[in-house]
Amino acid sequence: MNLKYSLLAAILVILGFVLLILPAKEQLPETNPEVLQYELNEVTHFISTDKVAERIINQDPTLLLIDVRMADDYLNYSLPGAENIPLKEILHPDWDDLLNQTDRDIVFYSNADVYAEQAWMFARRKGYKKLFVMQGGLNNWFATIIQPTEPPETSSTKEIEAYQFRKAAGIYFCGGQAIVSEVNPQDALVITRKNKKTKVEGGC
Amino acid sequence: MKSNQKERSKKYFNPYFGGVLLGLLLLLTFYITGRGLGASGAVKSTVVAAVHTVTPDFAEQSHYLSKFISDDNHPMNNWLVFETLGILAGAFLSGALSGRLKLKVEHSPKITSKRRLIFAAMGGLLFGIGSQLGRGCTSGAALSGMASLATSGFIAMITIFGTAFVFAYLFRKNWI
Amino acid sequence: MKDTNQRTNRLSIAAIFFVLVIIIGFITLHKPEFEFKVPIDQALDQVLSFEDEMTPEKATDIVSNNMAGYQFVDVRNPYEFAKGHIETAINISSKELLASDNVALFDQMTKDSVRVILYGYNQSEANGSWMILKQLGYKNVKILLGGYEYYSGEKYNMFSESEIPQYMVEQPKYNFAALMEELSDGNSAIKPGNNHTEVIIPERKKKKSKVEGGC
Amino acid sequence: MGPLIPLGIIGSEWDLVIAILIGFAFGFILESSGFSSSRKLAGVFYGYDFVVLKVFFTAAIVAMLGLLYFSYLGWIDINLVFVNPTFIASSIVGGIIMGVGFISGGYCPGTSFCGAAIGKIDAMIFTAGMFIGILVFSEAFPLFESLYNSGNLGSLKITETLGISAPLFVFVVILVAIPLFYIVTRIEKKVKKVNY
């Protein structure tokens, strides 16, 4: 019986020791390249300018816009409520608190979507979640929201509705008073992931 | 007398076996729910529910209780309450299987049942206050806290057992 | 005593069960096939250096002079590829980028020090694949600015008045601030940091058609 | 991959079913280990029965080890595991009050439920006392409020407090626990048996 206890004790010690000599794992493991490749291919990281506009207008508290252009460009013009993290500073530890979260949808944008996607890629590689890229960037923002082109009359009602929304949104962003009718609320929402990662309330 | 003693202890699990099982269960609980086991929280929920039902105004005025009242979430509808119901059922089954079901007051032969009950009530009262102040009891704060390496768990463990040791001498008559 | 032994056996079984679970966990531990070889800060520096970006002019040069040591890789899907592509290009759709034979191909090209030039319809389409390959440690991979769109000449002179080549997609196409100023036309436009407090100013112009007014 | 419920892998509608099942196992193990007897529990303070200490420490070590291994194997996201916030002053005072309650009542909340379930009247009284205690606490809350909220250190982990890595800490705990188990077994044999 004593032998058995010694064996069990040995097992415990070995288990503890193995854990000790295992290489340390980072708190937030790097996202696997295959995962990133998959997300890029499925284009789950893009969010359209329409949806961004709608969420800004609705003052969605779960939206956080990040401008990855240089500070000068940001000061010159930026989307309402956007924070500025120039691409070259994206890895700076100062931004960890802002980026490493799961409460908000972070949307990166630049003039186009290349720099924003690069910022997305680096933040995503660091293991951060709920990150998106505004499709087409600010150039597309101006082309679609601020100065939308009117679709030909033959276009589908959906397109015309989208145009009317854009027009109204454009008025809103230019400081005018506009009643913004929502586009289809169903697909207006960003891909709402099923897993809500909330910290559970525990305790006794 | 001695054989009786052995007979009795045989009915219980080997303590290490119980410990390993409890550890695995705790691990499973963390794995499934992300939080540990607990017990005193259920009592709190029941108190909140009871007070809220009897005198709603009073509960809402109470600074402490009102923290746990919300309209859509009934206080009884609480993870820990259901867990506690499970504890009662599980303990009952275990007691039934080992033939330990018996209505009695367990106390040292040196003291009367009455004295034991008074001390039990006092202990319960203190535990009720202490568990709220310490944000959890032996299972919730100390055991689960230690397993999740929370500093509060170790503080709770050390203070609970340390204080009990210090006061053990005063209460020796009750137990030995 | 036999009974007590049985109980200790039970303990051993529980302990061994615990150990087994962990051992099985280690055996089945999924070792990722791919790992980023380039540290993240170096990868950022590489991107910021713009060294691995190739202009459409240079690409045209390579193709027309039949320069050796370059391989164009089209990351669009096979249908798009079939519709038209750079003559010497091969097709590795971005969905198949990490398939084992494609990885073997990239390895081979690295060994032969062939410079690989990725392109999609535009820069954005190849950007993800390019960054993944760079971070996997393929030093010889470049990206074609402007993508097939500009290479094929579809858009070459569309904005000829601009001095900046149009394949530089990150260049602003508008003077954002000035345009906003102009469009808001007296309405106080929402400025950065203003945190979109709604300024309600009655619309003055073109009251008749709401759709056209304002901006 | 885990924890399952916070990640939404198991729907929250299963939450309460799981609560009952886990509680059931919890109660069964506690009772079978002898935690339904107050005199067995109190034995740890007089040296005649160390079952509490053995079960408690074994369980804590197994769960600690398990959590770290699970985390290593990627089965559980350790950041989503609830860590009780540390309020240093109220933790200590609460612990002291609970310690006195423990030695006087002989139970703690979990074990008193077990005792009550198998018909221990003292356990039932203890539970009733607990109800009153919480009621008293909520009544006198303004009195405790400053203490209750003082010294908030957040969800602090012992590894952060001591500044050592988690594996090292667990290893040290194991190295301390094994001789401890051996010593208490020796003490148990020496101390006069108590019949209960």
Number of domains of chain B: 2
In total, how many beta strands of chain B?
Answer: 0
According to DSSP, the number of beta strands of chain A is 5
* Intertermini distance of chain B: 16 Å
Structural class category of chain B = mainly alpha
Overall pLDDT metric of chain A:
80
Low-confidence runs of chain B: 1-6
How many helices of chain A? The count is 9
- Coarse structural class of chain A: alpha/beta
- How big is the Rg of chain B? 19 Å
Shape descriptor of chain A reads: elongated
Radius of gyration of chain A: 23 Å
Question: What's the CATH class of the largest domain in chain A, please?
Answer: Alpha Beta
Largest sheet of chain A: 5 strands, parallel
Looking at the chains present, what oligomeric state does this protein adopt? heterotetramer
Give the gist of this structure.
The complex is a heterotetramer of chains A (204), B (176), C (215) and D (196). Chain C has 215 residues and is an alpha/beta fold.
Description:
The complex is a heterotetramer of chains A (about 200), B (about 180), C (about 220) and D (about 200). With about 200 residues, chain A is of the alpha/beta class. Chain A folds into two domains: about 1-140, Rhodanese-like domain (Oxidized Rhodanese, domain 1, 3-Layer(aba) Sandwich), CATH 3.40.250; about 155-190, no CATH class. In chain A, about 45% of the residues lie in helices and about 10% in strands. Chain A has a five-stranded parallel beta sheet. The longest helix of chain A has 20 residues, at about 1-20. Residues about 175-204 of chain A have low confidence and may be disordered. With about 220 residues, chain C is an alpha/beta fold. Chain C has a domain at about 40-170: Rhodanese-like domain (Oxidized Rhodanese, domain 1), CATH 3.40.250. In chain C, helix 6 links the parallel strand 4 (about 115-120) and strand 5 (about 140-145). Residues about 190-215 of chain C have low confidence and may be disordered. Chain D is mainly alpha-helical. Chain D has two domains: about 1-80 and about 165-195, no CATH class; about 85-155, no CATH class. In chain D, about 70% of the residues lie in helices and about 0% in strands. Chain D has helices spanning about 15-30, 40-45, 50-70, 90-105, 110-115, 120-140, 140-150, 160, 165-190. The model of chain D has no long low-confidence stretch (mean pLDDT about 85). Classes of the chains: A alpha/beta (about 200), B mainly alpha (about 180), C alpha/beta (about 220), D mainly alpha (about 200).
